[in-house]
Specification:
Elements: H1 15-34, H2 41-48, H3 52-64, H4 66-80, H5 82-101, H6 106-116, H7 122-133, H8 139-168, H9 173-195, H10 219-243, H11 253-284, H12 294-325, H13 331-343, H14 345-359, H15 361-379, H16 388-416, H17 421-443, H18 448-466, E1 474-479, E2 485-490
Antiparallel strand pairs: 1-2
Length: about 500
């Protein structure tokens, strides 16, 4: 690794390294809280006498709010800064988490699980924070470390919370274990507010000129932006359908139709807000310094759809896949074998970011998505005749390309237009959830082999879309270690 692309993670006196560490840990806690229910579902099922359909409903509710939340949080981050937003998110989610832990009815449990989906938007906040602190030459690996190490929070929940529930003991041990994560997140929210700063000393935190939507720089970009919002609303409509009598039967058909009408109204409202943000400055003409291509954002959206979207979907089904494919495995063994997919985040996502820094944004993204596609085609061939170790190795190799691809996506996000990084990250992150909803819906209609083949084929389509990507260009302001301000050309 060249000197230009190295990061000394032990240089804690360096303000940017300190910011990276306190921010990835904030993300780690947000994911730990977001997925704290998963390893304890067996206790909840017994405590509330839940049916399998009710358990599935909780899993759906856990991701439902995250799609709009990431858009909203992205706007908020650009407007008031990541320090306040991350602190507020952790503190607010701690109350939802404690409420969830001590819910007395299934209805309360379901409502609070839905609200806790809000904490899943935490990822978006740190993307802007890390992008503000690290120079463009190694922002990729910094974002990769932030994303990869923070993402490990879900695996940490799976490993730690059952033991913590056992140590608390009694019928309510699981409640105290979940509540503990909420208390820790709330306390860290206060600490983060005290320790974090939005920008290096001497740097300006640039904000969008208007709130309510991304500012685009051409009419064609505006139409593409409006078009790219549609899949997010479709995903939310599908989630409502899955909660209806046609799915897990948590809401009535009338409620589903009311949600669909509400989503349509919300899309019309958002379209009006986006038009209002853009119509005047497009008429006046956009200055060359403010121009960027929204096509780049769209490509990153679809790239995250197949990377993080497939990861969320596969992590949800992989233990059952191993259990049903290989005879003689226990549920615990299947879970441990499947956990390797998430464990790869620790190294894969930072590697993808470094790869992007080192070899170029477009080339890195194309290579990693191609590897992801081939990986899923290999997984589609796994059956009971395979050697188990070979199946695990194939899964780990595939997961490397998936998570490295995620790192490569968010190596580009901070370089497109800094003052709108929160909104770009929010939209890209939301597309990851859209991908998860899409793939899990497909899984409910097909077998495992077809499921993996669909992901591989969709990744191949995104690979060809990624060939249309160009390297981000323009100038960004950077504060060097000696305190001097420089305008750096990107691209």
């Amino acid at each position: 690794m060249s000197e230009a692309h190295k990061i000394n993670l032990f240089a804690l006196k360096d303000p940017k390294i300190k910011t990276l560490h306190i921010t990835w840990f904030a993300f780690f806690l947000s994911f730990m809280v977001w997925f704290n229910h998963a390893p304890l579902l067996v206790f909840m099922k017994e405590a509330f006498d839940m049916t399998s359909q009710q358990v599935k409903a909780l899993m759906i509710l856990n991701v439902a709010l995250t799609i709009p939340a990431r858009i909203f949080i992205g706007i908020l981050v650009d407007k008031i800064g990541p320090r306040k937003v991350y602190s507020g998110l952790l503190i607010l989610s701690s109350f939802f988490c404690i409420g969830f832990a001590f819910a007395q009815t299934y209805e309360q449990l379901a409502l609070l699980r839905f609200l806790m989906g809000f904490v899943g938007a935490g990822f978006v906040i740190g993307i802007r924070m890390v992008g503000e602190w690290f120079p463009h030459k190694n922002v990729g690996i910094a974002e990769g470390i932030y994303g990869g190490w923070g993402n490990f929070g879900s695996a940490a929940s799976a490993m730690l919370l059952p033991t913590l529930a056992y140590l608390y003991g009694g019928e309510d041990g699981w409640r105290y274990a979940i509540a503990t994560t909420g208390v820790v997140a709330g306390l860290y929210g206060v600490l983060y507010y005290k320790l974090a700063r939005n920008t290096p000393k001497g740097s300006t935190y640039f904000k969008p000129k208007k709130s309510g939507g991304l500012e685009v720089t051409s009419r064609s970009d505006l139409y593409l932006y409006l078009l790219m919002n549609i899949p997010m609303y479709i995903a939310l409509a599908v989630l409502a359908w899955k909660l209806s009598p046609a799915g897990v039967n948590l809401i009535t058909e009338f409620a589903m139709q009311a949600i669909w009408v509400g989503l349509l109204a919300l899309y019309v409202f958002q379209t009006h807000a986006i038009w209002k943000v853009n119509v005047d400055h497009l008429k006046e003409g956009v200055k060359p310094l403010d121009k960027y291509s929204f096509k780049q954002v769209a490509i990153l959206n679809w790239s995250y759809f197949v990377t993080f979207g497939s990861e969320l979907a596969v992590v949800s089904m992989l233990p059952l896949f191993f259990l049903e494919t290989f005879e003689g495995l226990s549920a615990v063994q299947a879970g441990l074998l499947a956990s390797g997919f998430a464990f790869m985040n620790l190294v894969a996502r930072p590697t993808g970011g470094w790869f992007s820094d080192r070899f170029g944004r477009r080339k890195a993204l194309m290579i990693l998505i191609a590897g992801l596609s081939m990986g899923y085609f290999v997984l589609s061939q796994i059956n009971s005749t395979w050697w188990l170790a070979a199946a695990v190795i194939a899964t780990m190799c595939c997961s490397f390309f998936v998570q490295a691809g995620e790192g490569a996506v968010f190596a580009v996000v901070p370089l497109i237009k800094r003052r709108m990084t929160g909104q770009i990250a929010g939209m890209t992150g939301a597309y990851g959830n859209v991908g998860a909803v899409t793939y899990l819906t497909i899984l409910s209609f097909v077998d495992y082999s077809t499921f993996f083949m669909v992901i591989g084929a969709s990744a191949l389509i995104v690979f060809f879309i990624a060939t249309r990507m160009t390297e981000p260009k323009g100038e960004i302001t950077e504060i060097l270690p000696d305190g001097t301000v420089h305008m750096i050309k990107v691209g």
